[in-house]
Amino acid sequence: MDRHGGGTADSLKDLIDDRLYMPFPFLRNRHESEAAAGVDAWLRTWGLTDEPAVAAMIAGTRPAQLASYNSPAMDSDVLQIVANQIAYQFIFDDRAEELGRRWPGRLLPLVCESVAILRDGGPPVTALGAALADLHRQVRERCTPAQAARWAWHSREYVHGLMYEAVAQTQPFPLRLGVCGSIRSLTAGVEPFHPLCEAAQPCELAPEELHHPVVRRLGRLSADAAVWIPDLFSAVKEQRAGELINLALAYQRAHRCSLPVAVTLAIGRINSTIREFEKLYDEIRPELSPSGIGYVDAMAGWIRGCYYWSRTVPRYAGAGSASHR
């Protein structure tokens, strides 16, 4: 039975709703509409929505809604940075996918510009680069130097991941499940938000807490679950577009099965990931400071938020019409 009241599972969306383990309740941030207006203004400032196709993509993606669902307790200033970054990453990711699939060599200047901005504070030469430089400024002004440095490092790792994805898309042979998972971890773009989750807490986390092996493992589990859940809902869209770096599609290739069976296998992996997150958090919670608890709660928020956003966002509407049979 569909937990959202729909009866038997007649579509992939119903199948996901029915079988995905989601212990975290739906929440949203009271500053969502303010963040949405801020995103629209910020994108216009840097000319990123001048192209009608990009403007339509943002309208169908709802970055501020994703930020709101992921970060329901976040103050408006940090929430705005999160929403701006989500919008930027969707635009950057779509552009990188287009270049990487059709002209991989043309992706290099885009990647090099981003890395120079994030690593060296280099001057931007494109509209995307100018937006990234401004986003970097916002992070430096709101975060501590250590948090901003972690944000830049994770953001560079995400940018490099897009090159790996471009290489994978050009290979004539099917990608192994493990390779696909490794690339997906890099291109997820979730871990750059963890320093912003920390910045939203009352105090900066002590190094021994931030780098505790269990806290680091929780970060990995959060990032994986948060990106694998949208993979379930986007599988139809990405299958039609010939994309490869998607957990459900990787299971389909590995097991040579139907998409519904592959989605079910992927759900099993996600459920195990979420349960491990719950178990480890329960074990370490008594040792964490109030800011540490807030930090890990924010990681859980990304798991919850990506689910509730994915099941309603127009970008993944195909999951609601595709049969699960």
TrEMBL record:
Instruction: Mention one GO molecular function.
Output: lyase activity
Q: Which UniProt keywords apply?
A: Lyase
Name of the molecule in the record: (-)-alpha-amorphene synthase
On whether Transmembrane is a keyword of this UniProt record, the answer is: no
Per its UniProt entry, what is the enzyme's top EC class, as one word? lyase
**EC number in record:** 4.2.3.162
Tell me what organism the protein belongs to.
Streptomyces bluensis
The record's SUPFAM superfamilies line, in alphabetical order, gives:
Terpenoid synthases (SSF48576)
Give the superkingdom in one word. Bacteria
Q: Which NCBIfam families match?
A: amorph_syn
